[in-house]
Amino acid sequence: MDQSLDIYIGWDSREPIAYDVAEKTLKDHASVPVRVFPIKVQELVAQGVYTRDIDPLASTEFTYSRFFVPYMAGFKGWALFCDCDFLFLDDIAEILALRDPSKAVLCVKHDYTPKATVKMDGKVQTNYPRKNWSSFMLFNCEHPSTQQLTPERINSESGAYLHRMQWAADDEIGEIPMRWNWLEGWNEKPETGTPGAVHFTNGGPWFKDWQNVDYGDLWRAEADKVEPGWQPV
C-alpha cells in the first residue's frame, strides 16, 4: 500500500489558529509524506457542491462538510479527516497500518456523553449515539459504502444518518485506538507518555476560559510558533 496520506482538517472562521496548530503539529511529527487540506465550507458552497440549509444545531462550519472527504479525494485511496481542535503529539504514520480494505471507515468508537449542555463558544452541546466517532475518520474512499457519500446524498440526508455512519454496515466500521482521538476532560491521561492526538472537544486554549485544560501548555507553545503574539478570544 501507498505509504503516504492525504489529510483533511475542518476549518472554521471563528478559530483559524486551531486549524493552524493542528496542521503544524501533524506535519511536524509525520515520518511519511502527508498532504493536508483545509475543508472550507464556503469554497464548497461557491463551487455549487454544498447546498444544505444552515443547521442551527451545527457547532462548527464543517459539521457536514467533513463527509465530502471521499468526494474531494476523487473516491480513490485512503483519506483521513479530523476536526480542527486537535493537537498531534505522535507520528500519524501509525494510522497507515490500520488500513483494512474490508472496512468503509475507521474511527475511535467513543462511548461519550458530555455533561455540559453548552459548548466552549456558546453553541448547544448536542448528544447523540456514536458522538465524536466522526471527529477523526479514516475513509476507505474506494469502498462501495463510502462511495454512497455523494454530494447529493450528503446534502439531503440527516445529521444522524451521516454522523452515526448509517451509510456503512456496522461490520464495515473499523476501530482506531483511543490515543488518536483522546478527548480532553473525558478520557484518562496515560500513565506514561502522551496521547497520539489530543482533541479539545469541550474547549481549547484559544478561548479565554479554557486555559487550564490538560496539554494546554503544549498547545500554547505551538500556537506561539504559528502566530507569535496571538491572544485567546
Label the structural class.
Answer: alpha/beta
Give the biggest beta sheet. Answer: 6 strands, mixed
Cα gyration radius (Å): 17 Å
The spatial strand order of the largest sheet comes to: 2-1-3-6-5-7
Count of helix runs: 6
Distance between the termini: 43 Å
What's the helical proportion of residues?
10-25%
The helix/strand order is EHEHHEEEEHHEEEH
Give me the oligomer status. single chain
- Beta fraction of the residues? 15-25%
Low-confidence regions = none
Question: Would you give an account of this structure?
Answer:
- It is a single chain.
- With 233 residues, the chain is α/β, with parallel strands linked by helices.
- It is 20% helix and 15% strand.
- The protein contains six helices and nine strands.
- It has helices at residues 16-29, 41-46, 69-72, 151-156, 159-163, 216-226, and strands spanning 5-10, 34-39, 78-82, 86-88, 105-107, 136-140, 173-175, 182-183, 197-199.
- The N and C termini lie far apart (43 Å).
- The mean pLDDT is 93.
Mind sketching the topology for me?
Layout (H helix, E strand, L loop, with lengths): L4 E6 L5 H14 L4 E6 L1 H6 L22 H4 L5 E5 L3 E3 L16 E3 L28 E5 L10 H6 L2 H5 L9 E3 L6 E2 L13 E3 L16 H11 L7
Protein traits:
Glycosyltransferase; 233 residues; 6-stranded mixed sheet; 3-stranded mixed sheet; alpha/beta; 9 strands; Nucleotide-diphossugar_trans; globular
